Amino acid sequence: MDEEKSQSDVLKAIEGLTRVDPDALAEFRRAMNEEVIPKIIKVVEERRVLAAETRKWQLKY
Amino acid sequence: MSHAERVFQVAGTYPVPVPLRANDPSFYRQLGAYLESGLPLFAAMSKHRHAVAVVGYEWRAPASTQLKGVRYAWDQVQALAFVDDNNLPYLRVPVNGGNPYSATDIDAFIVALPEKVHYPADAVDSLAQTLFKLAPVVALPPEDETIIRYFMSTGADLRCFVRERESEFDPKLVATIMSLPFAQYIWVVEFATETQWAVQQVAARAVIDATASFLEVMPLWLMHNRKQALVFDRRSLDPNSGSWALQLADTGQAGFTRMHRNLRPTRTK
Asked: Can you give the pLDDT at residue A60?
């Protein structure tokens, strides 16, 4: 795909942008997929279970 | 904590309870980050069977250390400001060794986030360390010499901050920041050396979409230092084809001004 056509309109207005070699981002993407995201899924799931419990309680005014 | 969280929900807010888990050094870093974002916290101290509101913080005086490893803004915090019904109106609470409390007695807190914020501080804490893996594109200080600070802000506030300090930035970077269609809420991650921290400067900055899903591999809008920037087209479905590099002209500054826009640190009188 032509580089110019693949840029969104917003980025087209920025002069000097060049495509990043995907290999330069590979190690970051691996760490996100294998370390960061699984870790945060676990934490958020713990929170969801805790919140689901408390939402069963009726608060009295 | 569960009861308190329920009260926050009924009050129409979006509370996130954050308990101190075993072997989790990020707990106090998250607490500090939310606080620096201008969000007061409901904090519990189980050992005192007591809860307080945490409303402020105070930096320690800059000092050079021989410590190795990545450090965080929390490591630079000297004390927190509590609103405690037993010690009104405000109580300065040192991080360690305080009487009647220490900040590290807190073992859970609740933060009431804006509805649109889906990317929690836990995720930012992990992501911030992972950003060192982008060093081939945007160089950062050596990990061992870096202090990481992260906090939430708005895209509009970042633009305002950059506009006020325009001379620090390459005009192309200013244009980029003014053009990017940031979500309303962003996380800002700042990387500073110890020397830069002492003079309230940073070496590099990353801007993360606070409304992103925590399942996103590339939740970034922008990352830059003085010479390079990585710009992400968040409307692109393919993170590889949506990643762009920008070479910047060095403006000769030793660093960028640290961004203090939300809750400013308190100073002991």
From this structure: 60
